[in-house]
Amino acid sequence: MGSNILITGAAGYISKEQAKALSTLGINVLQLDLTDEKAVVQSLLRYNINIVIHCASSINADLALNLITALGKQREASREQTFFIHTSGLSAFYEKTGWPQRETKDTGPVFDLEKQLADSFPIRKTDVAVIEHAKAKGVTSFIVIPSTVYGKGSGEWNKLSVVLPVYIQACISQRAVSKFPENTKVSGVHISDLTALYGRIIQKILQKEPLPSGTEGYYFALAHNLIWWEVLDQLAATLKARGLVTTSDTSIWSDDEAAAEAMGIPIQFVQPLWNSGENIVRKKPDMIGWEPAWDKDDFLGSIDDEIQAVLELSKAKSSLIDSLFESAKG
């Protein structure tokens, strides 16, 4: 049996205009309500889908669980192995969201610790639910954890990530660049390098090569380090050169509420998304041959391109911000 792959959420919300644009590339577009388990099962069986790359939400576990249930049904019908690649979030592994400060390697007991701390942060809870439900349904699962994604996408629809563009938009709106008092270290990955990691996993699956999965299937997409103040200093200088801010100096946010209002996100997600450091070591991606092309110097040298992409495209066509507000209600 051949492999049909379903990708959810990578292009933002599906609309008629988007469906038309993607269809011209020979891509079959499914306008599917992922909250409707019956519809999800019927669609995966109808199109013989045996691999799902899930990018729609790292917070709403129900979407992932419905897809896994459907893959379980597909496995029973086809008697072929099925695979679920879940996109998580690095904020699940930040000290400010309750993760231990010690160094974390993706070759270590990540699942055991996530399970212990699952109820303290929604993304961890989803990760655990995905792995356990996949095991119960006989579906092979993987967890891909992107770091701060940057770069303009080359697809036909959603070409922007969220974290950096939202910050740039807030700076332009305020006519100034603000930062947090702590100078934290995070990690970054260019969108092309991130998609290359998904590609390596898919390649291994199709070639039927051994691949760590399930509780051992964590893949941290960390290409290089970033120091927030260094990034924001470069951003301020570049915005000033474009006449988009009044000064190349950076100031300190007065409080999290001011940052949340400027960026248009719930206050409880300000620190996890823009002011949390991490102590993560990637191993698994290297083991399967992932070689990121972009490094920190490349990123800093591309800040003007990041600004231009925001000016051209305005906002990402993504469900992430909406999912943050939904989570905040809970």
From TrEMBL:
GO terms for molecular function: aldehyde dehydrogenase (NAD+) activity. Residues 5-204 form the NAD-dependent epimerase/dehydratase domain. GO terms for cellular component: cytoplasm. InterPro entries: Epimerase_deHydtase (IPR001509), NAD(P)-bd_dom_sf (IPR036291), NAD(P)-dependent_oxidoreduct (IPR051783). This is NAD(P)-binding protein. It comes from Viridothelium virens.
